[in-house]
Specification:
alpha/beta, six-stranded mixed sheet, globular, Nitrilase/N-carbamoyl-D-aminoacid amidohydrolase, eight-stranded mixed sheet, 2 domains, 14 helices
Length: 488
């Protein structure tokens, strides 16, 4: 293990929420550039990258300990190996100051989609979710932010004369990059999120589903029709019943929707025969109708489904903790919620479209963009962090909501049964954030937005293609230089 590389990894970790000491990432990566280039063998180079990963991921993925201890160690070691391979590939090659950011951000790009559908958690972009660097998300998404953070860190330590030109170019790009537009006449929607509260670190198998519903019903009853709320949003998995449509919970929620004269968006878990379940979002209207069902597409590996279940069960893994797999939804992540009266701003709209990434899906920009492409003017992220202890994952999810808000120029409403719930502005500012386990009801007037950013139009493909071509070009160029020196 390379001790200095571990320290650098810790710098990245403590720049990540919930700590959020964002300058540490620039200091750490600048030092890593100097430390890693001293490797005198391929093995030392791999160990430097691997050690970086250990320091980075052991703290930031510690929330996995309470879900699966073997899974936690496997994930940390696997991610660390990927960064070790990145260093191995660039060992002895120049220009290292360009190869290193490219190689390591390609690793991030890989884990955005593989294995098991991807795990874009504890990323470099999250360390900058509330800084100027996050603004580049609307140009090239989280991958561009991660790349610029790594490249800028190296320039700070090795090519300082390039820092000012880089900042100037960045400011120019941000000045011309679209941010999305307001609706005509600044149309606003009054939204209430409902966090019922309750203990953290619980699982569905040892929690009464009825208790969860009652907590949210009691909280919702504190809302008044005089507050003129347009839409009420409940978290993910709040209602867990065999069939929602004919359940007493559906009738109770319909009574509240009628009392408030506002539709209520709810997270429902119900059975799918013969042996599965669906994680769905539905809307109950004031008339009692259940409409607009969206079933989650990006499921949490080892949380909502078990990859290689039979193989792991044969090894004695605790697959019984997830007894049934969630089905994979097939529709875009968008909800169209009808309005029963003019909005709080006095505008008569038949409905409002919400991009609806459910929980884990907020980490994937593409899931959000499906709603934006279909005209969504707000993003809602119903989630459920009650299975996790501490605030590691919940803080990273808030950071992801900030990044998605910036990338698409939309406000985000994040709501969880036990926290964190919050409103996030299109510029990434967080307001009315709840505490863990508390009962919390917050109301905000959210501006409806239209228009699309460059990232919304282009997605991650351009930055991935750029990184791949740059990496290939720099490697080939180095080999040619090596041949010229040899022949000379």
């Amino acid at each position: 293990m390379h001790a200095r590389s571990v320290v650098v990894g810790l710098c990245i970790a403590f720049a990540t929420p919930p700590w959020g000491w964002w300058p540490f990432v620039f200091i750490g990566l600048g030092i890593f550039c100097k430390v890693s280039q001293k490797a005198t063998s391929a093995r030392q180079s791999f160990v430097a990258g691997f050690s970086l990963g250990l320091g980075w991921f052991f703290p930031t993925l510690a929330w996995m300990w309470f879900i699966s201890i073997p899974g936690y160690f496997f994930t940390v070691i696997f991610f660390s190996c990927l960064h070790g391979i990145a260093e191995l590939l660039i060992f002895g090659r120049e220009p290292r100051r360009f190869l290193q950011p490219t190689a390591h951000v390609l690793v991030e790009a890989l884990r955005f989609s593989w294995p098991f559908g991807g795990a874009p958690i504890a990323t470099l972009a999250m360390t900058q979710s509330h800084t100027w660097f996050a603004s580049f998300g609307r140009i090239g998404g989280a991958l561009l932010v991660s790349y610029l953070v790594w490249q800028f860190s190296i320039f700070l330590f090795s090519r300082f004369r390039l820092v000012v030109p880089c900042i100037a170019i960045g400011a120019l790009l941000l000045a011309i990059a679209p941010t999305g537009n307001s609706f005509p006449d600044e149309t606003q929607l009054r939204i209430a999120y409902v966090q019922g509260g309750g203990p953290q670190g619980t699982r569905a198998t040892n929690t009464s589903p009825r208790d969860v519903v009652l907590r949210h019903l009691i909280a919702t009853k504190t809302l008044s029709p005089d507050q003129k709320i347009d839409v009420v949003i409940w978290p993910e998995n709040v209602v867990d019943v065999p069939t929602f449509a004919n359940s007493r919970e559906a009738k109770e929620i319909a009574i509240e929707a009628k009392r408030l004269n506002a539709p209520i968006s709810i997270g429902v878990t119900d059975d799918v025969p013969p042996d599965n379940f669906a994680n769905a979002q539905v809307v109950v209207t004031p008339a009692g109708d259940i409409i607009d069902r969206y079933e989650k597409v990006r499921r949490v590996p080892f949380g909502e489904f078990i990859p290689m279940r039979g193989f792991l069960e044969a090894l004695g893994a605790p697959v019984h903790q997830v007894r049934h797999d969630a089905i994979k939804g097939k529709t875009p992540a968008v909800s169209v919620i009808p309005l029963s009266r003019p909005t709080i701003s006095g505008d008569s709209l038949p409905s409002v479209s919400f991009a609806t990434p459910v929980s884990w899906e907020i980490f994937f920009g593409g899931r959000v963009n499906e709603g934006i492409e279909r005209g969504a003017s707000i993003i809602k992220n119903p989630t459920n962090g009650s299975s996790y202890r501490g605030t590691l994952l919940q803080s990273q999810q808030i950071a992801s909501s900030q990044l998605r808000a910036i990338e698409f120029g939309r406000s985000v409403v994040q709501v969880a049964p036990t926290g964190f719930s919050a409103f996030v502005s299109p510029s990434g500012d967080v307001s009315q954030r709840s505490k863990v386990s508390e009962r919390r009801i917050e109301i905000a007037d959210i501006e409806l937005r239209t228009g699309r950013t460059w990232y919304s139009y282009l997605g991650d493909s351009p930055i991935i293609i750029y990184l791949l071509l740059s990496f290939a070009f720099l490697l080939i160029r180095h080999q040619r230089k090596g041949r010229i020196r040899t022949s000379g």
